[in-house]
Amino acid sequence: MMNWAKQQLANVVGTEEPIYGPSAIQAVTEQAKEVPYTEMTKEDLRWTIMDSTNVETHTFYFMSQQGHIGMAQVIYSNVGGIRTTAQFNSKIFYPDQKLPNLWCCDPAEGWAFDEEKFTFQADNCGIELSEDGNSYRITSSTNPDCVVDITVTRNAPGFVVGKNGTSFFGPDSKNPWGSMKHAFWPRCKVEGSMVTKDGEVDFTGNTGFFAHALQGMKPHHAASRWNFVNFQSPTYSAVMMEYTTPPSYGSTVVNVGGIVTDGKILYAGATNSAKHTAIKGDPDSGWPEPGSACFEWKGSGFDAELTGSLGERLDRIDVMGEVPRFVKQFVAGAVGMKPYIFQYAPRLTLKITENGQQKEEEGRAFSEATFIS
């Protein structure tokens, strides 16, 4: 009875859940044992738009020849089926110039989806899928500090790991109370720019990345930690997304990722790992900020590794930094939640062994280490 009461409280206000154990998550890694990955079609690109608590995102990254990294993102969130909001985020990193990051986060007013749920549109911003389902146009004049007009066209098949890219939460697999899904276009051609008050950052002719993510439950109930890397080189693109559930679901590690080249998926699946090989720590947040990392992809006749120093961090984001102090203290005390995101952009060498043949290529990695609870 006490666990039932705790669960009801958690459903309403997001407090800590009871300990259900690893049997209460049906991880996508189990699907991947039978079907390592599934290529995406246009039908897979619809927004889900759930009626219950969820966070759904379309996120795009762009890397310029000058070393700049751009990000554009729409976040659609629903709190308890009571309040829905949308926002448009854009960010530019200047890792080679050591300049301050440009960060814009704005409410997307008047938001709506088209009838088929392929396109998001709001006042002064939008993400529109092309008729053939092979490209997105991202536009925003919501914030004059960063005006966005960029088109990304996939150069390689998109994929989800397993049959549908989704892990389900809850002891009853037929009636889950939560879910987590990721879908990727790892390698895209980019056209367009982001215009700032200091000038235009042109991303035309460079590589881009797209991810569609859905957290169909309270985010801190689904995961306590995250590791993410998006690697781009002249020949290869690699992606890995790993999360660890809270103890309520057995601290289960779920990892999805893949490596592609133009027109071809070399590997995609769930037999991957992300490890922090050196810890430098962050006394301000108290989290064990990594100094080096090793990302490994392992398939049948295929192995790849991306390892080395993460370098100087680009940013450290206090996710609850804008929350009033007393609310922040209450949430941290009630849930043990103190979310921080550490971001990096090192130049690393991807090492691939395929059917006994070894290849190496240097590129740029964008990586995040996220600690929540």
Automatic annotation (TrEMBL):
UniProt cross-references to Gene3D superfamilies, sorted A to Z: AttH-like domain
A biological-process GO annotation: response to oxidative stress
GO CC terms: endoplasmic reticulum membrane; Golgi apparatus; nucleus
DNA damage listed as a keyword: no
Keywords: Cytoplasm, Endoplasmic reticulum, Golgi apparatus, Lipid transport, Membrane, Nucleus, Transport
Domain of life: Eukaryota
Membrane topology note: Peripheral membrane protein
Sequence ranges assigned to domain Svf1-like C-terminal in this UniProt record: 217-373
Keyword set includes Membrane: yes
Residue ranges annotated for the Svf1-like N-terminal domain, each copy included: 55-215
Subcellular location as annotated: Cytoplasm; Endoplasmic reticulum membrane; Golgi apparatus, cis-Golgi network membrane; Nucleus
UniProt similarity note: Belongs to the SVF1 family.
Protein purpose: Ceramide-binding protein that may transfer ceramides from the endoplasmic reticulum membrane to the cis-Golgi network membrane, and is thereby required for the biosynthesis of complex sphingolipids.
Name listed for the protein in its UniProt record: Ceramide-binding protein SVF1
